[in-house]
Amino acid sequence: MYLGVLPSSPWQHQRIWPESPEFCARAMDPSLYEELARDCDAAGLDFLFLPDKHVANASPPDPSIADSWFEPITLLSYLAAVTSRIGLVPTMSTTWYEPFPLARQILSLDHLSHGRAGWNAVSSHPGLEQSNFAHRPATSREQMKTRHAEAVALVKHLWESWAADAVVADPEHRRWFRPGAVRPVDHHGEHFDVSGALTLQRSPQGRPVVVMAGASDSFLRTAANDADVVFTALNDIDTARTTADTLRAFAAEAGRTGANAPRLMPGFFLSSCGFPEFGSSSEQQVRGLHFHSPASSDPASGAHVAADMVRIADKAGLDGFILMPRAIPEDIRFLCDEVLPELVALGARPRLSGTSTLRANLGL
Question: Domain Luciferase-like spans what residues (predicted)?
Answer without folding.
Answer: 33-270
